[in-house]
């Protein structure tokens, strides 16, 4: 068993880590940490509202027994040399300093954006760009670290990159236009989304989100050449919106390919890709990595968010587009708090462990 710590354990993503690591066959949570406000409290007490006594546990599953009475430490109280791996869910400005401190000694798997856009830091999605793993060795050498930082992509990027992988490899995707309909949970609990803002409403702006998707998609689907990532040569334009859905991001995607391709051929390529993804044997890997649903009313967040415990990206309404000369369009659904967050980070850690990086 590898000894792991969770940083930022009381937040929405930290709670997802608590659940994703419950009874994990390879990783054992030995220490948890959060802000000074929560330090020295038991986990269950730290997430209890001091005014109402209500637990701020936002997941449908109950709090795992192993963590209820664990005492939360301050971040500075964690000795990285006592661990094989640290999971970081810190989203504040402090994330970079915290992750730098620990990566000097031990691998850090992060859900924050602090290191995503550094030249020697890959943004990894297991089965999508495994060849970028070699950049971790360059990162360690460049920085003189024993460990490394391996960040997840933005949760909105995850589903798009997964579905675009076979389109880029098989058909030479050149342009992408995407509109997202993102769940409220993607904004976190604090400050989150005001009920008065989101009820009976759609908010057509999420700060920095569109640039993140554009930059990350190109980086993830690019090639590692001479120790650097050469971004994929395709243009990405997106509009990111917040909608009154609890969990799961839906995206409407339009793609221009290098040559004409019909929808049935694209469906076949997506299914073949899903069957070939190299995540077999990883405990958190879904049975189906990418699912194509023939029902014209799918995907839907309420119906599809629990497929394979939220780890499957679902595609539907795959059809020919009539604006692009060689156009395909589809709707995708990806669970922002599972594959796009902590459970996806655990899947990444599993892959790195199997490849000898942890």
From TrEMBL:
Its EC number is 1.2.1.11. The keyword Protease does not apply. SMART domains: Semialdhyde_dh. InterPro entries: ASADH-related, Asp-semialdehyde_DH_CS, Asp_semi-ald_DH_pep-lack, NAD(P)-bd_dom_sf, Semialdehyde_DH_NAD-bd, Semialdhyde_DH_dimer_dom. One of its GO terms (biological process) is methionine biosynthetic process. Belongs to the aspartate-semialdehyde dehydrogenase family. This is aspartate-semialdehyde dehydrogenase. The lineage of its organism: Archaea, Nitrososphaerota, Nitrososphaeria, Nitrosotaleales, Nitrosotaleaceae. The gene is asd.
